[in-house]
Amino acid sequence: MTVPAGMTPATALRIHSTMVRIRLFETTVEELFKVGKLPGFVHTYIGQEAIAAGVCAVLRPDDYITSTHRGHGHAIAKGIELGSIMAELYGKETGACRGRGGSMHVADFSIGMLGANGIVGGGLGIAAGAALSARYRRTRQVAASFFGDGGINKGTFHEALNFAAVHRLGVVYVCENNQYAQFTSRHRTTSVEDLASRATAYGIPGRTVDGNDAGAVHRASREAVERARAGEGPTLLNMETYRLRGHYVGDAEVYREASDVDRHRLDDPIDRWERTLGEEGLMTPGERAEVWEQVGEQVSKAVRYAEESPLPHGDTALDAVFTVDR
Q1: Are strands 180-181 and 171-177 parallel, antiparallel or unpaired?
Q2: Which residues contact 65 (CB under 8 A, 6 or more apart)?
Q3: Which residues, at least 6 apart from 227, have a Cβ–Cβ distance to it below 8 Å?
Q4: Helix, strand, or coil (residue 64)
Q5: pLDDT tens for each residue of 40-60
C-alpha cells in the first residue's frame, strides 16, 4: 500500500487524523454507553474509518453527504464539531439537532451533512434530490451517499440509481460493504458476488475498492467526484471492509465466529495507513503518538461539553415539528 500519486502529504496526514478522530470518538462512545451515560442504541463505525475519511477528503465544504444509522464517522469526516455530535448523543440542547435526533439521526446542514438515517437505504433518494437541486442551481455541488450491503438490496437503491443515471446527476453512491446486514451475512442475501456489478443495469460505472486502504478509497472517490462534478453522472463504489464491532454496542455476535473477527483485526485500516505514512517518510513514531494524544484531548473536551450542557426543556418538545404559518 502506498500514498496515491497526486495525493499531497497534507492530505495524507489529514486523512490519518480524521481516522483517529473517528476511532477515539467511537471507542469513547462505547465506554459511555456501557456505563449508562448515553440513551438509546449506539452503532459504531470502528473498522470502517478509511471510507468516510477517504471519501470526504475529496469533497468540497459545500458538497453533500447522506448517511446511515452507523453515521458518526461520516459526520466527523465531513467536519461536524465533536462537541456538537457528542452532545447530540447525550440528548442535550447543544447537540447538532438540539438533542432530538440522537445517535441515528445526526444532521448538520451547515456542513452539507443531510442526516444519518434509521431507515436502511433512506439516504439514497435524498442524495439524488440534493444533486438534482445542485443541477438546477448550477452550483456543481456533488452528493455522496453512504449505505451498507444490506441497503443495496432495497428498492430505494434501484430507484435512486435509475433516477440519478437517467438525469446524469452528480452523486457518488458509496456502498460500505462490511459483510453483514445487521446479523446476516451478505452471502445469504445478495444474488451477486461483486456488488459493483449492480451498476451495469443503470449504465453507470461501478468499481470495487479495498475499503481498508485509505489511499485506494481516496483515489477511487476522487475519480468519481470529478466525474460527478463534470456532469458525467453517478458512480457506484463498492467499498469492501469489515465491521470490527457488533451491529450495536452490546450485540452478543452469535452469528459470526470470534476467530473471523480477530483475523480481520489484522487488516485494521488505521494500522495500515500508519505503516504507509511511516514507509513514505511522512510520519515518525513520535508524530503518530502526538496525533493520538491531541485527538484524545479533543474527545475528552467534547465529553465534558456534552455532560455540562443542559437537557432540552419540556416546553420546547414541539419546536421544529411544525412549520410556522406566516
Answers
A1: unpaired
A2: 56, 59, 74, 78, 112, 113, 114, 127, 143, 144, 145, 146
A3: 205, 233, 235
A4: strand
A5: 989 999 999 999 999 999 999
Letter string b/e over residues 303-321, b meaning 16 or more CB atoms within 10 A of that residue's CB = bebbeebeebeeeeeeeee
pTM of the full structure: 0.94
Give yes or no for residue 22 having a pLDDT over 80.
yes
Which residues, other chains included, contact 13 with Cβ-Cβ below 8 Å and sequence gap of 6+? 277, 282, 283
Q: Per the structure block, which three cell numbers stand in for 83?
A: 462537541
Residue 108 DSSP class: B
From residue 204, give the alpha-carbon distance in Å to each of 65, 80, 191, 218, 233.
Answer: 20, 31, 19, 20, 8
DSSP, res 310: P
Determine the angle formed by the axes of helices 9-34 and 82-90, rounding to 10 degrees: 20
Q: What is the pLDDT of residues 139-148, one digit of tens each?
A: 999 999 999 9
Half-sphere exposure of 314 (CA within 13 A, CB side): 0
Coil/strand/helix, residue 254: coil
Burial of 87 (0-12, 13-18, 19+ CB in 10 A): buried
Torsion of CA 253, 258, 261, 265, to 10 degrees: 130
